[in-house]
Amino acid sequence: MADTPILLREQQYHQIKAVLARLRMDASAKVVFLVDKDGQEIASQGEVGNLDTTSLASLAAGNVAATGGMAKLIGEKEFPTLSHEGEKESIHISVIGRLLLVVVFDERSSLGLVKLRSKQVSHQLATMFDEITKNDYDDLESPFAEITDEDIDSLFS
Amino acid sequence: MTFINYASREINCKIVYYGPGLCGKTTNLQYIFDSTAPQARGKLISLATETDRTLFFDFMPLELGTVRGFKTRFHLYTVPGQVFYDASRKLILKGVDGVVFVADSQEERMDANIESLYNLEENLQSQGYDLMKIPYVLQLNKRDLNNIVPVEDLAAELKRKDEPVIEAVAATGAGVFDTLKAVAKQVLTELRKG
Questions:
Q1: Under an 8 A CB cutoff, do B95 and A40 touch?
Q2: pLDDT digit string (tens) for A77-132?
Q3: Which of A21, A100, B143, B165 is deepest in the core (most CB within 10 A)?
Q4: Containing domain of residue B32, as a range?
Q5: Vertex B16, ends B28 and A128: CA angle to 5°?
Q6: Is A116 left (phi over 0), alpha (psi -120 to 50) or beta?
Q7: Distance, CA of B113 to chain centre
Q8: How high is the pLDDT of residue B53?
Q9: Would A4 be classed as within a structural domain?
Q10: Does A98 fall in a domain?
Q11: Does residue A66 sit at the B interface (CB-CB below 8 Å)?
């Protein structure tokens, strides 16, 4: 089945941001962000600056999808973590159900520390995300409930 | 899969351009990229081979503006058209909100169009989607060439439901934004339905 849409309430968003902020500090990371497996960035925390997090999110998801495909070919379900180490900057990605936890770090940290700290928050993030997807959204007013054809046309004017 | 963030008041949707090899999917994205204000779009990421054939996907985020106080952002993807990249195509369809099928109007590409459309239906199904139910547009590209199949014949062969059929010359931009608008409209209308 296709995944259901993600509707993120304000409070949930801030809770996720708080977890990411703590992880960023504990792992001495530059940037930490949470992406869904389809490539949508959910939240980010850290020295984002000029970093193109939208593209990074999409490429991280593509990367996980591709290595997941390789995993299946050799009889594995998926590879739960991926690391790419550069000369100065490195990336660590953990797969948490439908989510990807992406940590960008440099020489101020180490892969071991990032792995450890990422693992420590994985369960918490998974539980939070379960809540998000299980929630009843009847009380949330859809911004599109009363959208008109003129509204849509105006986007392209 | 639509992502609505009530905190940052953003809506993100995913549109995938599908079609046979060299039909003009990347050209569609390139034209949108070239003719959109830099503040409205992100980078155009192209994972291509040395001969400019799409290897994995092209990606471009595009911000269309604000609807009811929510920033509306479309993530545009293309798939690799070449037959042997089927695994990549499947992956990119994950979480799709709308599909554009770019058909190559040239006579000799008719079989490739049919094969690719069949492949789209199959791959959508494997991801839990039904072509008959999702927002979908058929673009007939390369209408400026000489050896093209008439629109009625292409439509008769490739049309699957009551989808909009748009004639295009992606290289010059003709029909490119009409196509995007047609699919975006359907995606947003789906959101209205809830």
A1: yes
A2: 999 999 999 999 999 999 999 999 999 999 999 999 999 999 999 999 999 988 88
A3: A100
A4: 3-193
A5: 140
A6: alpha
A7: 14
A8: 80
A9: no
A10: yes
A11: yes
